[in-house]
Amino acid sequence: DTAVSQTPKYLVTQMGNDKSIKCEQNLGHDTMYWYKQDSKKFLKIMFSYNNKELIINETVPNRFSPKSPDKAHLNLHINSLELGDSAVYFCASTTSGVPYEQYFGPGTRLTVT
Amino acid sequence: AQSVTQLGSHVSVSEGALVLLRCNYSSSVPPYLFWYVQYPNQGLQLLLKYTTGATLVKGINGFEAEFKKSETSFHLTKPSAHMSDAAEYFCAVSEGTSGTYKYIFGTGTRLKVLA
Predict the structure, then answer these.
(1) A49-91 pLDDT tens trace
(2) Is residue A96 a contact partner of residue A31, using CB atoms and an 8 Å limit?
(3) Which of A1, A15, A6, A35 shows the shortest CA–CA distance to A106?
(4) Is the peptide bond before A8 cis (omega within 30 degrees of 0)?
(5) pLDDT digits 0-9 by tens, A22-34
C-alpha cells in the first residue's frame, strides 16, 4: 500500500493552461504539505494544511490554489501556467504534536512548454 | 527564523570509504533535526531524526548523525560507503508549534560513490 500517492506522476502542458495535481495519504496523518523542487534540487515549502485548515501559505503566486477536502487529501490547482512553474511538486504528510518526520509522495514532474 | 546550511553540494567518496555530509543549523530554540535521502526520480525518505535525548542518532542503511549543540551541527556519517548510497541528501530543521510545524530544508548534497 502506498502511504502518500500523487497523480499524475508526469504532467506536460502549455503556457496559459490550468492544471491540477492530487495527493492522498493513508497514514491517518492530519497535516499535509506541498513543496516545489526546482532543477537545482532546492526544496521550498508552498502550503501546509492541518485538519483541512490552511496553516502555512508561503510567498506563492495567487495562481496556485490548494484545497483540502478532507484530512487525507490535498490538491493543488494551478491557473495560467508559466514556464517558471516547471518543477517537481511533492506532497508530504505528518502528524501534529512533536514534529515527526514527514512522509513524501513520489512527486509530480510538471513541464510547461 | 531557523535555517540550515549544507556544506558541499557534491561529495565523492570511494566505495568502502567513510561518508561525511555536513549540516549546520541556526535556531533560537532546541531544534528538531532530520536527514532525508532522495534517490533519482523518487520522493524524500527519512534516514534519521533528532528530537531530544541521546545526541548520537542511528538511522537506516548504516547511517548515523551526532547533534552537537555547541557547534550547531548535525553531520551525517556512514563508516563504509556502498554504491547504493549514491543519492541526494537533505538536512532539515523544524520550527513552529503543534499543528503548524514548518520544515526548513538545506540545499542538498549529492553523494557520488566511486567504484
Answers:
(1) 988 889 888 888 999 999 999 999 999 999 999 999 999 999 9
(2) yes
(3) A6
(4) yes
(5) 999 999 999 999 9
Q: State whether A98 and B51 contact (CB < 8 Å).
A: yes
Average pLDDT for consecutive 10-residue bins of chain B (115 residues)?
Answer: 90 97 87 93 93 90 94 96 97 81 92 96
CA distance linking residue B39 with residue A15, whole number of Å = 30
DSSP state of B80: S
What is the structure's pLDDT at A56? Answer: 85
pLDDT grade for A99, boundaries at 50, 70 and 90: confident
- A27-64 burial: b if 16+ Cβ within 10 Å, else e: eebbbbbbbbbeeebebebbbbbbeeeebbeeebeeeb
The reply to whether residue B44 touches residue A102, judged by beta carbons under 8 angstroms, is yes
Q: Which residue of A has its CA nearest to B6?
A: A42
Q: How far apart are CA B82 and CA B115, in angstroms?
A: 9
Please check whether residue B94 is in contact with residue B106, taking contact to mean a CB–CB distance below 8 angstroms. no
Whether chain B has a CB inside 8 Å of the CB on A77: the answer is no
CA pair distance B73, B75, nearest whole angstrom: 6
